[in-house]
Amino acid sequence: MTDCSEYHIVIPARFASERLPGKVLLNLAGQPLLQHVWQRARESTAESVLIATDDERIVEVAESFGAQVVLTSADHQSGSDRIAECAALLDWPDEHLVVNLQGDEPLMPPACLDQVAALLDERPDCEVASLYWPITQSDEVRNPNAVKVVTDSEDRALYFSRATIPYARSHTNLDEALGAGIVWKRHLGLYAYRLAALRRYTSCAPTPLEMAERLEQLRIMEQGGRIAMARACEFIPAGIDTQEDLERVRKLMKVKHYK
User: Fold this and answer.
1) 8 Å CB contact between 86 and 119
2) Which pTM value belongs to this model?
3) What is the per-residue pLDDT across 29-74, written as a single tens digit (0 to 9) for each?
């Protein structure tokens, strides 16, 4: 994998999180959660790192720690929509590569940001790139919150699902299937987009499979888009959705001494 420095990272951040309102501004090891995410992004080789938000409180805090911030509409349904508006406001050309880094991922390895951008840069046959991690526990295979991806012989995504895919029909249970070498891949929600594809994707209405699974990446595939996949070069810890997640990450950061 070669380096890809000519890409942008946009961090979509909203205040009105359903399960943990205002989470991006909550204190984490003496700093706002969002600042940790921004710092991880700044440790990558990206050409620029921006925060896109619809809330003046986030603008004020982000600017206080030195971030470049773009104020966007409050009407967006997803971070992808927010990033598309940010790119339009900045008049970025269609050929730019943009990485979507969620604002609740304070433990994101910077190397994975560079990896997903380089993966897309190296795959002209694909419009989007993303990463996965092998699943080794049967409980995780069953968990609908652990999104699974199956890929083809050229590591392009075939389908994403909350269901157990592939279905191990010839085995009596999942532990047996794992022991027999069947591989399940957990999708990690880190994306790199060719900006032209992101603009096309966000201009369309939600699609049937996307609505059924509640997975927005299926809209890309239903439109005929191709998503390049690769195993993450480092493990990516789960982000923060709940108060329990916040406490878990606080403990991890004490051990790892993140700043």
Assistant:
1) no
2) 0.92
3) 999 999 999 999 999 999 999 999 999 999 999 999 999 999 999 8
Question: In the chain, what are the domain boundaries?
Answer: 8-256
Report the CATH fold assignment for 8-256: Spore Coat Polysaccharide Biosynthesis Protein SpsA; Chain A (3.90.550)
CA distance 38 to 9: 9
Single-letter code of the amino acid located at 100? N
Can you read off the two tokens belonging to residue 196? Answer: 């032209």
Q: Report how far residue 79's alpha carbon sits from residue 12's, in angstroms, rounded to the nearest whole number.
A: 5
Judge whether residue 103 has pLDDT over 60: yes
DSSP classification of residue 156 = B
Q: How many residues make up the chain in this entry?
A: 259
Q: What is the 3 state secondary structure string of 3-61? A: CCCCCEEEEEECCCCCCCCCHHHCEECCEEHHHHHHHHHHCCCCCEEEEEECCHHHHHH
- The pLDDT tens digits for 157-189 are 999 999 999 998 888 889 888 888 888 999 999
